Amino acid sequence: MSEQLKDKVALVAGATRGAGRGIAVELGAAGATVYVTGRSTRARRSEYDRPETIEDTADLVTEAGGRGIAVPTDHLEPERVKALLDRIADEQGRLDVLVNDIWGGENLFDWEAPVWEHDLDKGLRLLRLAVETHAITSHHALPLLLRRPGGLVVEVTDGTADYNGEHYRLSFFYDLAKSSVLRMAFALGHELGPRGATAVALTPGWLRSEIMLDHFGVREDNWRDALADVPHFAISETPRYVGRAVTALAADPDVARFNGTSLSSGGLAREYGFTDLDGSRPDAWRYIVEVQDAGRPADVTGYR
Questions:
Q1: Residues 6+ apart with CB under 8 A from 21
Q2: Full DSSP string of 189-233
Q3: Cβ–Cβ under 8 Å, residues 213 and 51
């Protein structure tokens, strides 16, 4: 994918860690200029209180072959998002790819509590972080993206439209947030398609994010040690895998065929032929339906 996107400008909103970082780095590996945003900087951590920063992400983008530009941004503050897009317009005069990956809700939902027992302030905060931020960012970013034909918007979520349409996702607030992002991509597809741009929803599979690895007490180099306790974790994937999915979409001159649809990293790997960092092609959502949810023993044969 080297240099395929060397003249492209991308904004990855929510690129501090996880899928956002993986997407930003892979766009950089394809030669893009990538603006990366988030609230955790080397000077100040967000409420996550984790070590990852947007400056680190920008450095990784540049090391991969692109140009990474870190801009501290709280996407719940419209004036700051407007300032971000004004800066991109002044410096680049264009925006080719917008990735809405803002989330920030891991510590805000309770898997066990029904809505009437769930902390209301935390639930509403989750919805603001996961949904309102995407709407604010699209409002300010899309006029710049539409200056040139062929722009791409990727709404990052958890779960495909088919899967989420039939399954309850962890809690009332989590379910609502992730389903809302799917619908955003559908709605944006209707608004952008006639104007020469494309919007899609994209989900990774079981992501080996920094937070997930910490949760299981492992690192990327020994992640399989977690399989003794969580055998289905064998289908997991690195954040770079979904990054390669975004890069493949951004480089596809016929990407409009996906407009308004729900996609997955595993499905796009079959479409475009890319692999995860270890050379495998995990197809997590097919595995979840056919193996995990079906109650079968963990076995990734034929799924990665």
A1: 15, 36, 52, 57, 60, 239
A2: HHHHGGGT-EEEEEE-SSB--HHHHHHHT--GGGGGGGGGT-GGG
A3: no
Residue ranges making up the domain that contains 275: 9-211+238-284
Number of helices followed by number of strands (H, E) in the chain: 11, 7
CATH of the domain at 142: 3.40.50.720
Catalytic residue, candidates 35, 163, 174, 287: 174
Helix (H) or strand (E) holding 70: strand 67-72
- The 10s digit of each residue's pLDDT in 27-78 is 999 999 999 999 988 999 888 889 989 999 999 999 999 999 999 999 999 9
Contact 15, 38 (CB under 8 A): yes
- Model-level pTM? 0.97
- Whether residue 272 lies in the annotated active site: no
Contacts of 148 (CB under 8 A, 6+ apart): 94, 96
Sheet holding 97-100, edge to edge: 67-72, 33-38, 9-13, 97-100, 152-156, 198-203, 262-264
Residues 269-282 have a mean pLDDT of 97
Residue 68 located in a structural domain: yes
Q: How many structural domains are present in the chain?
A: 1
- Domain assignment of residue 37, yes or no: yes
Whether 140 is in a domain gets the answer yes
Task: Tell me the one-letter amino acid at 229.
Answer: D
DSSP 38-64: ES--SS---TT--S--HHHHHHHHHHH
- Model confidence at 3, in pLDDT bands (50, 70, 90)? confident
| Residue 219: inside a domain | no
